[in-house]
Amino acid sequence: MSSSVSRSITLGDGTVGFAEYGDPSGVPLLYCPGVPGSHVEAEAFDQAAAAAGIRVVAVDRPGMGDSSPAAAQPVVDWPDTAVQLADHLDWDQFAVIGVSGGGPYALACAYRLPERVAGIAVVSAPAPFDKHPDGDLDAAARKRRRSLAMLQRFPFLTGPAAAQLEKAVRKRGGIDTLISQMAQVDQARVAADPELAAKMAANLAEAFRQGPRGFATDLRSLFGKPWGFDLTDITAPVQIWHGDADLNLPCSESRRLATLLPHTDLHLIPGAGHLLFIDYAAEILDSLCLR
Length: 291
Prior knowledge:
Distance between the termini: 27 Å
Shape: globular
CATH topology: Rossmann fold
Order of helices and strands: EEEHEHEHEHHHHHHEHEHH
Largest sheet: 8 strands, mixed
Strand order of the largest sheet: 1-2-4-3-5-6-7-8
Structural class: alpha/beta
CATH superfamily: Alpha/Beta hydrolase fold, catalytic domain
Number of strands: 8
CATH class: Alpha Beta
Number of helices: 12
Low-confidence stretches: none
């Protein structure tokens, strides 16, 4: 495990928690964790970032880690927090990475802060769920879309769904249950590296440290309402990474992102699952061309 210690600062009316990885004097990069996820997740980029001369700051969204809870807001509003943190850190420009459910938040930064975002990558990330009819999707993606449509129609379901996952995670062996629902390649990856399971458990424990409210807020922002911006308005090139064996989010999501974004490089990794960011951290960072 990384020795990085989380910190918190007061921005506006609340507290924002974050942790740093990589090279302390390196090129700035803001990391948006998955859903549910926390700053602990970015430890996967620690060694690669240090070698590449990149300073990674991973930010906890409201209700996770040390960040104060807040009401659900459109994804497009998240850069308000990101830019305040960047100003606090004296960053004029910075790159952004969003993994899984963190991808939309990273894209929002590229949309709202085009003069300050120097590079962007999204990894195993979803596309907007309200942009294409079910007929355009494969069977797995259609099933996921229908589940998300339920959250859009009945947003009050996000609370029970978040509480149910928190309960499962807190049970003894709860992380094993979650891993068993992932692709075989992901299950094999964790089985071959016992420390990885401990890191995943630590990430989820931090995400749920204040209870399930933060996760529920993320669900409502991502899937209970439109994101609040159009991907076609993002002018920066976006590096899109996805494993073609991913069961958590099928790679059809990244293909749809690539059709909606004006400037992209799509990296589909054969045989990789949802955990590809762990083994491809160096390649993901290198694709940003920050040096």
